[in-house]
Amino acid sequence: MGRAVTVAVCALNQWALDFEGNLERISRSIDIARSRGARYRLGPELEICGYGCSDHYYESDTLLHSFQVLAKLLESPAAQDIICDVGMPVLHRNVRYNCRVIFLNKKILLIRPKISLANTGNYRELRWFTPWNKARHVEEYFLPRIIQEVTGQETVPFGDAVLATKDTCLGAEICEELWAPNSPHIEMGLDGVEIFTNSSGSHHVLRKAHTRVDLVNSATAKNGGIYILANQKGCDGDRLYYDGCAMISMNGETVAQGSQFSLDDVEVLVATLDLEDVRSYRAEISSRNLAASKVNPYPRVKVDFALSCSDDVAVPTCVPIQWRHHSPEEEISLGPACWLWDYLRRSKQAGFLLPLSGGIDSSATACIVYSMCHQVCLAVKNGNADVLADARKIVNDETYVPEDPRELCKRVFTTCYMASENSSQETCNRAKLLAEQIGSYHINLNIDAAVKAIMGIFSVVTGRTPRFSVYGGSSRENLALQNVQARVRMVLAYLFAQLTLWTRGMPGGLLVLGSANVDESLRGYLTKYDCSSADINPIGGISKTDLKNFIQYCIENFQLTALRRRVGKRCIMSAAPTAELEPLLDGQVAQTDEADMGMTYAELSVYGKLRKIAKAGPYSMFCKLINMWKEICTPREVASKVKHFFRMYSINRHKMTTLTPSYHAENYSPDDNRFDLRPFLYNTTWSWQFRCIDTQVTAL
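and the corresponding structure tokens:
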């Protein structure tokens, strides 16, 4: 009867400008799709060049190499008798568009440009592309000679059209168009399109996956139809982790779910679905049918090809499934771990070095590396040849098979406790216990000699010797003495990262990991060019509250009992966060982060969300908090807290310009590179804004 259609959707770990690798992964996905009976294959957004090319999109080379890859795909025997839908940039009449190129049997059927461009948060598509603003309009696109020689076509349709096969009708959306208030699938569905496709370049944010799933399912719940979504996965060269979650939905229900976090470079979902289920679902929605009778029709590109077989009565079709979402703790365990693995193998380094202080943040970072090792061993056990080959290159052993996460940790992960006279024995022992349990190669060293040498130079030059405040020194002296210790640790971290493997008779160098969380970065509670200055930071977009919950998750799921084992008076889980840069009091730590900052980490999370997500300046933040905190603070206390936050935030904003590249996980991240664009020289008195607050306090 020709009613059961088989479609394939992909999640590919593409890498910006890695045209050879990207071609191999696309080709492999087409092979898998065909071998499993699919007649249509959908890939991620801009998969040919990789989504994260940024200003390389301006280069003609990027366009040229994309067409060269397209030519290879058109010629490939694997790409015959299956409609292939790939993503790449295309220059049409001297305007650059983000496009889908849809082809079948060496013929391009349609080039469909993106209509709604993503231009918020981490996305800057309007910088490189122009949206296609000609609704339901198609023009002739003159193919470059390299493609003409393969297809025999001189021109192909370019614009907002849909494909009409022998048995159904398909319409394309591209990423942001699903999130837009006037998504194309609405009117395409009213015009008889039965299969909607979406090629995405959507990155991970904690607690975001359900939003994407809900949008896909709701797209067909009201209007009926089949919706298939492809997405990029992995680290393609910057702070983002694209989190897969390829999916297929029909009539408001999920029928196939891809993994959100995985070390598989190529993942293909295939589903067989009954078109009559779509038609019968739509038949009884009278409001939809009334609207459909008035819709402005889309141009249709006729395709002499069917997604179904003529005799398919006995073909089994897919049934709805329940989507399984990860908890935030699972997301922290898996997302940054996969990102670290991609960064490690693609940077061709031999491992990581982490200054391990025995506190929550550095311990959480260590646990993420351990989770990475766990994922690698699991992937190898499941037969992932790519992961095995990468692991062997990293450890420089062609016969190596990673089976035990602790043993792999020993090879690729070095931890270092950098003690000073202000460090407690408790934190030293906590760091050592955790290192032993995860299996890292652990180093204990003391930085006092280096600190004294530096301060000695200062004293010789100036004739003055700074003192800590507990010994009668000023706040300036106290801060300078803390900063020297922190910066010495950064210098030593890089020295040991370069030469530790050399001392062990092993080749290569190590990437230095930072461990500043999103809250202290927002407040600026870090020394510029200290241990927060690293190569990459897997927790830089994660809040202290979420990290504490993640530590509990590691205790329960990885059996890392060192995280809760009491050393002295406290364990890693319960110890008060401290920088340990001021002198001890009777051998005990007297300095704490929250006392130094003048605010709690819980308060910082609230400030961060209001500042970034709610777009609140000082006055608006005050107005919101007097209601949120009315049970615990007076308006005058709220005013004092808000002023203190904005004063410290603005004084320290300059530190964000040198912030270590961090895994993006929170929508209130202060990352200055691309996500949170602000001045770094403020008028820190905020005189007008604070006066408005004072006026309101007086009135209240």
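(Above: one complete record from the training split.) The chain has three domains: 4-302, 328-446+491-595, 598-699.
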